[in-house]
Amino acid sequence: MTYQPPVRDYTFVLKDLLQLERYANLPAFADASIDVVEQILEEAARFTGEVLAPLNSVGDKEGCHWSPDFTVTTPKGFKEAYKQLVEGGWPGLGSEQAYGGQGLPHVVNLAFSEMSSAANMAFSMYPGLTHGAYSAILAGGSQAQKDLYLPKLASFEWGGTMNLTEPHCGTDLGLLRTKAVPQGDGSYKISGQKIWISGGEQDLTDNIVHLVLARIEGAPAGTRGISLFIVPKFIPDADGNPGERNSVKCLGLEEKMGIHGNATCVISHEEATGWLIGEENRGLSIMFVMMNEARLGVGMQGLAQAEAAYQAAAAFAKDRLQGRSLTGPKNPDGPADPIIVHPDIRRMLMDARAIIEGGRAFLFWTALHGDLAHASPDEAVQQKGRDYMALMTPVLKGFLTDKGFQVCSDAMQAHGGAGYTEHFPVSQYLRDVRIALIYEGTNGIQALDLVGRKLAADGGRGVMSFFAEVDAFIEAAAAEEMKPFTAPLAAAKAELQEATLWLMQNGLANPDNAGAASTDYLHLFGLTALAYMWALMAQTAQAKIAAGETDPIYAEKLAVGRYYMQRVLPETSSHLAKLKTGAELMMALPAEAF
User: Fold this and answer.
1) Of 293, 307, 440, 495, which residue is the catalytic one?
2) What is the CA angle 290-17-466, rounded to 5?
3) Maximum separation of any 2 CA atoms in the chain, in Å
4) Three-state DSSP class for residue 499
5) In this predicted model, what pLDDT tens digit does every residue of 59-90 receive, in sequence order?
C-alpha cells in the first residue's frame, strides 16, 4: 500500500481540539475559516497521496546523480512533481502576502508539510529548507534583500539552503573556518568548504540561495565572530533574474543510509560573491530563526514517517494470515487468522497510534502558540506563545524523532521477515527517519539545550506557565469520566516537576549532573506533554459524544487515550529514577577504559 493522508485526524485537531475558528477575528486567521482549511486538507491529501507518494520508492532506489560539471540531477519524476507543487500554490500557504504568499497560519501549513513529508520525505526537504531560508531573510535581511529574494523563495521558483557544517565542525560552530573578505562595494568574497548540505545542488529551481555562516577577517574567535551571508548560485542581474554563475560548486554527494532522493552535497565556496545579512558578527542569531523552524520541521518528520510506517503495518497486519487467535479462530474459513488478532501486534499498533496522534496534537498545539505569538493583540498571549515555542522546540524535535524511529522499527517488526526486505515500504521509512535523530542538532544536543538554556530562560517562566496551565486544566476537568485521564496526567506532571526541581538543585552544583539527566528529562517532558494532549482530546471527544456525534473517531480517541495513559505514560517513572542517579555512575570509568 502507499501512504494515505489522515485528513480526518487533521480536521479533528484543527477544528475540534484547537478550535481555529475562535481566532477568526485576528487578521492572521481571517482567511483560515474551517471550510477553507478543510478544502486545503482535501486537496493537499490528493496532491501528496497521488503525486508525491508514488515517487518515494523511486527516489529511494534511484537516488540523485552528480556530474563532473558540478551539477546534480534529482530522481525521475521529481522535477515534474516539483513543477506541480509550484503551480498548485502549495509553497505560499504560510508565506506573507506582501511577498506573494497566502498568509495562512503556520499551523495550517504544518498539516500540508506533514502530509508531504510522510508521502516523500526526501522530496519534501527541498521546499522545507527553502521556506527556512525565506524565514531567515524575512527576520534579518534588509528591505532590498527581502524585495529581491523573498518573492522567489516564497513561490519556490528559487531554492534555499543553509550552509553550517564543515568537515571539522558540526554543532560547535565556533570552530568554523569559512572566511569572508569585504570587497568595498558591499559584497564579500566567501571561501571555505561546507558538508552535508541538503539540497545544495539540484535541477528543480532556477536558482539556489545559499545562506552561509562565515567569519569576517579580524572577527572575534568563537560564536561571537560569526556572520551570515546570502550566496546565490547565480548572481541576480539588474532585473532580479539569475545572471552570472557564482563560484559555488558541488564537489560531490554523500552516500547515505536513507533520504536518497535528496541531494546531500559537499559545497565549495571559492571566493564566491556574497552579501551580509544583518550586522557583522550577529549571524548566528539570524540563522537560529532558520534552525529553530527546521527543528520543528524535523520533529514533524519523525511524526510523518511514523504515520506512514504505521499505515503500512496496519494494512499488513489485516492482510497477513499467520497462526490462530489465542481465544479461538477469528477467520474459521481460512487457513489461519490475520496477525492483527494477536495482542503483541496490537501492542505495536496501539503504541504507534498513541504516539502519533498525541504527538500530532502536541506539534500543532505548539505551532498555534507560535502563530499567536505574532498574531494576538494581547501581550500576555504573545509572551506565552514565545515562551512555549522556545521551551517546546527541543522537546518536539528530540522526543518525536526518537519515538518516530521506534514506531518505524515496530512497524518493521509487525511485518516480520517481510519488513526486512525492500519489497515492503517500512525498510525505507526506518532508514529515512533515522537521520531525523541527528540533524539540526542531535537529540542529545536538544536535551542539553532544554535543560541548559530553555528551562532557566526568563527565570523559568515558560515551564512554570506550562505547569500552571496543566494544574488549571486538571482542576477544571473534575467530571468523573475525566479521571482516567486527569489522574495519570497529575501524577506525570508531579514527576516532571520533581525532575525540574532536582535539576535546579543538582545541575548548578555539578553541570555533569544536568548533562547526565538531560535525555531522560526530555523524554519525561515529552511523555507528560502528550498526556496533557490526550487529556485535552478526551475532553473534546466526550463533549462531542455527549452532543450526539456518532463519528467513530471520538470513541477511538477515548480508547487510544486510555491506552496511552495506562500503557505508555508509566515510562515517566523510569526516566525520573534514572535521571536522579546523576552523573557519578555515568562518568565513573576513565576515558581510556572505553
Assistant:
1) 440
2) 60
3) 83
4) helix
5) 999 999 999 999 999 999 999 999 999 999 99
